[in-house]
Design goal:
CATH topology: Umud Fragment, subunit A
Radius of gyration: 28 Å
Strand order of the largest sheet: 1-2-13-5-6-11-12
CATH architecture: Ribbon
Strand content: 25-35%
Shape: globular
Distance between the termini: 82 Å
Order of helices and strands: HHEEEEEEEEEHEEHEEH
Largest sheet: 7 strands, antiparallel
Number of helices: 5
Helix content: 10-25%
Structural class: alpha+beta
Number of strands: 13
Length: 247
């Protein structure tokens, strides 16, 4: 064999050895662990998925809508130590907010802020007034205006926050007529856009600022929950709602 031929053989790169199963599995575990850490950080501090379970926010949000919620806007809560990160801003009047339920442990609810700390809120025949000014609410709907009865549940808590000018002895609030109520510091008054079919602050009281978790970003998936079609989550997708932002 010539020297040139020997040199070519010596310079040739060795064939790569196949990865061992142990090395391959280790890389997969590492990739999955990194992905889980990123997902945990995003879910805890920035964004969380939320599903609309009831019709209390119709027409704005429908049963079968799936949302991403911005948790950083109002200051995300750190797990275990229950401390909140600094908020970008506080909730504003008109914001749609997701918060911890006042009546069901571990359940999150979505409503619209209609009264902020320091406001007075009231309803007269189904029309909302804030600080004595009638509010224009294009998102609100009334599907059952003929049903409006007195509510002992509402009176039980509302009498504590009535303005001094209201006769507490004669006060009998109804779904569509109540107040005026003074919203205390650190509290918010929320209502569903479907005003005749919403269990909200009118019945159980104010929402504490500390339990407001976030604001919906956009709808990432939606389907008609009541569709007659087979497998409605794939056959009755509301394509026009995907990617839209609730206002």
């Amino acid at each position: 064999m010539s020297d040139a031929k020997k040199g070519n053989q010596a310079d040739a790169a060795p064939e790569p050895r196949p990865k061992s199963f142990k090395r391959w599995a280790g890389e997969w575990v590492k990739s999955i662990a990194i992905a889980l850490v990123i997902w945990f950080v995003l879910r805890t501090l920035l964004v969380e998925a939320f599903r609309i379970p009831s019709g209390s926010m119709e027409r704005t949000l429908l049963v079968g809508d799936f949302l991403f919620v911005n948790k950083a806007l109002y200051g995300a809560e750190l797990p275990l130590i229950h401390t909140h990160l600094p908020a970008v801003r506080d909730p504003r009047r008109g914001d749609i907010v997701v918060f911890d339920s006042r009546t069901e442990e571990g359940v999150k609810v979505v409503k619209r802020v209609v009264g902020a700390p320091g406001d007075t809120v009231e309803m007269r025949a189904g029309v909302l007034f804030r600080n004595g000014v009638r509010q224009v609410e294009p998102w609100a709907q009334h599907v059952d205006p003929g049903t409006d009865t007195a509510s002992p549940e509402m009176r039980l808590w509302q009498v504590q926050y009535l303005l001094p000018s209201v006769d507490r002895g004669a006060y009998q609030p109804t779904r569509d007529t109540w107040g005026p109520l003074a919203v205390p510091a650190g509290q918010y008054f929320v209502m569903g856009d479907n005003r005749d079919n919403s269990y909200d602050s009118r019945y159980w009281g104010f929402v504490d600022r500390r339990v407001i978790r976030g604001k919906p970003l956009f709808i990432y998936y939606s389907y008609d929950h009541d569709s007659w079609r087979v497998l409605p989550f794939v056959s009755a997708i509301r394509w026009s709602r995907i990617g839209s932002r609730p206002h």
